[in-house]
Amino acid sequence: MATHFTPFASLFGGTLIGLAAVLMMLFLGRIMGATGILTGFFAPVSLKDWGWRAATLAGMASGPALYLMIAGQMPAIEVPISTSMLLVGGFIVGMGVTYGSGCTSGHGVCGMARLSPRFYRGDPDVHYQHGGHCLCHSSHGWRVIRCVS
Asked: Do the Cβ atoms of 34 and 60 come closer than 8 Å?
């Protein structure tokens, strides 16, 4: 499985994520952290709080349907691991975002822009771990798809 260099599509997607984060901060005064949005959806403080969370999640979930309408077909996605490994990985990531008080959408995208001390303490550690993982793969001769942190 190989990845393709897509600078314009990546720039467009990153711009949309950044724009969404700015608009959420501007209009709601909230950080656009996907984990916090999802958690608050299941345990809302008020009906108004639940409403914006539901709208945000609906927008996230409708992306693939919009892509299908525009492109006429879904992109081919190859997942090179088993479903059980995906579930284990999802559980581990879920534990990490729970104990880390959020995910990279909130800490990385919004934390850097807000000059958040939590971002500058935690995010570089994640990048070092990614680099170590890629180094381990390449030094053991395992197939590396692409390592970009």
From this structure: yes
At residue 30, what are phi and psi to the nearest 5 degrees? Answer: -120, 155
User: What is the distance between the alpha carbons of residues 38 and 125, in angstroms, rounded to a whole number?
Assistant: 25
Half-sphere exposure of 95 (CA within 13 A, CB side): 5
pLDDT interval class at 3 (50, 70, 90): low
Q: Which amino acid is at 126?
A: V
- What's this model's pTM, rounded to 2 decimal places? 0.64
- DSSP assignment, residue 45? S
pLDDT at 149: 43
8-state DSSP, 4 = -
Please give the Cα distance from 99 to 85 (Å, whole number).
21
The gap from C-alpha 85 to its chain's centroid, in whole angstroms, comes to 19
**pLDDT per position as a tens digit, 46-96:** 988 899 999 999 988 998 899 999 999 988 878 888 889 889 888 888 887
First-residue to last-residue Cα distance in the chain: 19
